[in-house]
Amino acid sequence: MTTTDKLAGTPISRRQLLQGSALLGVAAFLAACGTKGTASAAPSTAASTAASPAPSVAAASGATAGASASASAAASATAQPTATPSTTLKWANWTYYMDISADGKTHPTLDAFTTKYGTKIDYEEVIDDNENFFGKIQPALQANQDTGWDIITMTDWMAARLIRLGWVQSFNLANMPNFVANLKDNYKNVGWDPDGTHHAPWQSGMTGIGFDQNVTGAVTSLAALFTADPRWVGKVDMLTEMRDTIGLAMLHLGLDPTNPTRDACDKAVAALNQAKSDGIIRGFKGNAYAKDLRESAAVLTMAWSGDMIQVLTDTAKNKKLDIKFNVADEGGMLWTDNSMIPNGAQHKGTAEMLIDWYYIPENAALVEDYVNYICPCKGADVALKKIDPAVASNPLIFPPDATMAKLKIFGPLNEADEKYFNEQFATVLGVG
Amino acid sequence: MGTFLKRHHWITPLALLAPGGLWLLVFYVYPAFQMFLASLWSGSLETGYTLSLDNWVNYPNSLAKYAPFFLRSIVYAAAATTTTFLIAYPLAYTIAFKGGRYKNLLLFLVVAPFFTSFLLRTFSWQVILGDDGPVLGLLKTIHLLPETFRVLATPMAVIAGITYNFLPFMTLPVYVALEKVDFRLVEAARDLYAGPWRPGGAIVGGIVGGVLLGVLGIVFNGSAILFALAGAAVGALIFHFLVSESFIRVTFPLSVSGVFAGGLLTFIPAIGDYINAELLGNPGTNMIGNVIQNKFLTQNDYPIASTLSFILMAGVLVVVTIYARVLGTEELSAAAARA
């Protein structure tokens, strides 16, 4: 079964799946307000090393301390991690984010890890919303307790928040030779994790522009989203994700989303409000923009590459529609979901080994063949060519270097700025 | 046991109330109290919250800042409740008096859509109201509507969605009230020379229709006068031909209790609804529910979100109290009895 088949049955993606669900919202709220906060604004690295008492981890790294230096020196595609694997491990991830066997019952790459190292992995697809999951793990982290998870997978901005709070641990890179060797360069040197040892990118997506070329002609500039052209006025969708919409607006204005300032935010918000009052924008959508695009309710829209793969496949034979996806000349946004090890994790060493496991290109290729987002691992496309050349050559899954160079990762925001950005964006959405 | 219960006769009602009472205590009173405390917090998710009575300013500040959203919610909910009434009353009347042996089937059909989820039903309205959907697409093809005309992403769509979603909440109570009406009373009224309601009906109908559509016209920036005139004409015609004196003086007063209940059951959930505005509206049609959702889930601003929820609750209480005064069943039936 291909990803295409799998996704066809789920018109609402995992990202949007439960955003409209009031019940979960209430649950998140109750979970979040059940505990009183205790201030913890310690610098991330200091706090994370101080707050990692897990005895098994200490034992694991202690037992192999001697071997680690030589292993990391010999890091290569076939390098071996050095920790002693634990018997169990718990990983929280999003749905449809891991390769699945033909019968849909097992995850082959996880099974291979179990076979090799003897670790039984409790892999659970429990994350459907960043804030929601944050609400679940926050009480434990705040109390310096084990969350129960060894690996959690969070989107950039939430990853940045967790690092800022000092709630995730720094990797022992000796256990992660493939991660060191194969992480693509775009993902390095992010502002919110300067030494790059607190997060490992799992999957990425691009935010660009989608359009119906039959109606709009070729669109290569973000300026189109802000221009009251009769061909698309009132038929433009933008995204409800603050960092995507503000980010693209900043790029349109020649501002730098990798270093988001309040001044840049104000300008972006002004441009968006102008586009709204000019009647250009039809609405701010989650994944529903894809539906609008298929039904011609929108002919030009901000769009995520993962969704657009599906839209392009579905509309390929429809002569009325000529849907295209572009990363505009001014640039596009790159978002990433990242694997991290929360404080208090019981099996840190093994968690590092498992994260590293997916930086072996052959394993990354197997995941990619199912997931169809952008892979952060070098060489995965080469490995995938052997098993599924069509996916390996899809520019939305393995974007060419020229495209990758245009993508920007939204920069870090401190808490006060994040609040400011969200409040300003709420006025754009018409809820503030 | 029997004598024990007889001696302590207050135990039985208390025991019967206990399950519901406990349920409300645990799942309503306690969370509501927590939320009230949250409305007096200051701080953030990351730094933690501190409770202080000084934060009462959250209330006037939020009310001032979000007044337009409260107002819009009241207008939309009132419009939807009115429309629901206009559709549900004739429906319930027909089922109650003309339904005959199809009564149960018809009632089932009213409730049938509720076997599907609220979200799904609202999504399906996106299809129905779509720019090139079955309705507008057809009207555009035969050039009755201009190409650029649309209903989706307008206030009209939001109100239509709410109206549809809450229709049974109005229909069922009205039906129950009408069902209880003793038709012999209507026959008695006719015996006492209650005939067609003319010319009074046309005048009342004209005024009601004119006011209703006139308000709609103002709300949607249309031409109020044109809307009012159209409404007056339709209202007058309907009342002139369809409304009899026996209906106005007997049947309707006897059904007011159902209208009252239906109005509450529609208005209260409608004013807090955010799904219809989110799925059918545009950024200019968001209701207070959308603001609260954004505050809770996107901005994690629990204090302000809780404050807004409490203001909404208080607002609903005020509106409902006024409503009960105006349309309170006892006063009205008493007045009808005097007339």
Note the topology.
The complex is a heterodimer of chains A (432) and B (339).
Chain A lengths: L2 H6 L13 H12 L10 H7 L4 H9 L1 H9 L14 E7 L13 H10 L2 E8 L2 H13 L8 E5 H9 L12 H6 L17 E13 H4 L19 E4 L2 H11 L9 H16 L3 E5 L2 H7 L5 E5 H11 L7 E4 L5 E9 L7 H10 L3 H11 L8 H8 L1 H4 L8 H6 E2 L6 H15 L3
Parallel strand pairs in A: 1-2, 1-3, 5-6, 5-7, 9-10
Antiparallel strand pairs in A: 3-9, 4-7, 4-8, 4-9
Helix pairs in contact in A: 2-7, 11-12, 12-20, 16-17
Chain B lengths: L1 H6 L3 H28 L2 E4 L3 E4 L6 H41 L4 H9 L6 H11 L5 H8 L13 H25 L3 H9 L8 H20 L4 H19 L2 H28 L2 H6 L7 H11 L3 H26 L1 H10 L1
Antiparallel strand pairs in B: 1-2
Helix pairs in contact in B: 2-14, 3-7, 3-11, 3-14, 7-11, 8-11, 9-10, 11-14, 11-15, 13-14
Features:
heterodimer; A: 432 residues; alpha/beta; ten-stranded mixed sheet; 10 strands; B: 339 residues; mainly alpha; MetI-like fold
Quantity of strands of chain B, as a count: 2
Order of helices and strands of chain B: HHEEHHHHHHHHHHHHH
CATH superfamily of the domain at 63-195 and 244-338 in chain B: MetI-like
CATH level 1 name of the domain at 63-195 and 244-338 in chain B: Mainly Alpha
Instruction: Output the radius of gyration of chain B.
Output: 24 Å
Largest sheet, strands/sense/barrel of chain B: 2 strands, antiparallel
Low-confidence stretches of chain A: 1-77
How far apart are the first and last residues' alpha carbons of chain B, in Å?
53 Å
Tell me the greatest interface. A-B, 40 and 40 residues
Mean pLDDT of chain A: 82
Percent strand of chain A equals: 5-15%
- Percent of residues in helices of chain A comes to 40-55%
